[in-house]
# Entry
Amino acid sequence: MRHGNVENPKGVIYGRLPGYHLSEKGKEQAAAAADRLGAADIGAVWASPLERAQETAQAIADPHGLDIVTDDRLIESHTTLEGVTRSVVGVFRNPSRWWHFRNPMRPSWGESFTEIKDRMMSAIQDAVREAGGKEIVVVSHQTPVLVARYGLGRRRMPPWLGLVPCETGSVTTMVLDGDKVVSAAYFKPPVRVPEG
# Structure
């Protein structure tokens, strides 16, 4: 699962920076995901140590009476762009950053997909073992979730990974038989329309 929407009024790439919590929309997304997973036989909820993931995981864990297992392997991918505004101007304003975009086929601006896949798959395998045959929920961040989805499906990561759906608060459900994915589903929390 990807954490819910974040309170980010300055529109920065927050990456691993502390202090970024769920917005009201993010709390609603986490509640919708918790409703979606309400009937699941969840044996473990694992999450990234970052606040937004912990808050999302708490919404999932509470109805099942579970404690969250915090695992650093589930953290946001490392990027050299932390603290930069998300606009193209913000990213490319500083010429020293240009070198990091020398190869658009891989994230040369931070952690590689292989590194992300290795740590995510390791954490997921540990979570599965500890869940005792029950379902697990892993709450992480956009790129790690996408990379894990491709890793579990034993597919190569496309360079356009950011174009694959993985919205805030979304839940990707994968059913495994051994190490083979036998089915997958994607849930995006509904957008609440303001009254009036």
Notes: The chain has one domain: 24-187. The mean pLDDT is 86.
